[in-house]
Amino acid sequence: MESRVLRVERRELGLYAECGSCFGLCCVALPFAASAGFPADKAAGEPCRNLRADFRCAVHAELRERGFSGCTVYDCFGAGQKVSQHTFGGKDWRSAPETARGMFGVFPIMRHLHELLWYLTEALERPEAAPVHGELRRSLERVDGLSRGAAAQVAALDVDALRQEVGALLWRTSELVRAGVPGRRDRRGADLAGARLRGAGLRGAALRGTCLIAADLTRADLRHADLLGADLRDARLAGADLTGALFLGQAQVDGAHGDGATRLPRGLTRPTHW
Length: 274
Prior knowledge:
Blueprint: H1 4-12, H2 69-72, H3 79-87, H4 100-125, H5 133-147, H6 151-155, H7 159-178, H8 250-254
């Protein structure tokens, strides 16, 4: 199970999505295109046809059946309620349409900030990363402070530069955690879509940003692998061991296919569709 300390800190930072406190921002601000995950195109700033007047989803219980599986693998890390309730003080874009443009512009940036906070809190839980815990804590406090700025301040942030800065610190964390794994492989950013990796020995591998769409990872050893940003959509994880995997999010797991024998890192939940 996810440690109580980690859960409390993430709760205090507002990193768990609370859709009831959000104005359906992911259903409006973000675009999507007709694909395996969505049945039709939708432009950024255009409300999804399923968004109700109360900002709830009319088909939430049937998203996969209706072709909206892309929605089931999205996590805003609590950015929605932060923008809705803090940045814009509880004013919603329907009753206060003058806020719409700014709100929709800030939301994707806030989502980046909250994702970084999620990773930083995980890194601070890793005892092997003790040599950089001080830097991690300072980085977390800085990013948290940025997320609490006014709308104009958040909109003006150089997100790419910030992600590179925090990413370098997370990489140092990753190296410290994986240091004891002999022969670990570095496949960062590799295109392994559809790759046959059944039973592969990927313990401690660097798979950051790797494309693993529809890859066969059945019974693969992914213990302590760095999976930050890895694309696991439709990857087969039956019997795979992801114990201790670094920076693996629930949305990544939700987009993959596993079974009762798949071993997940603590804090992640086995998807109901497995």
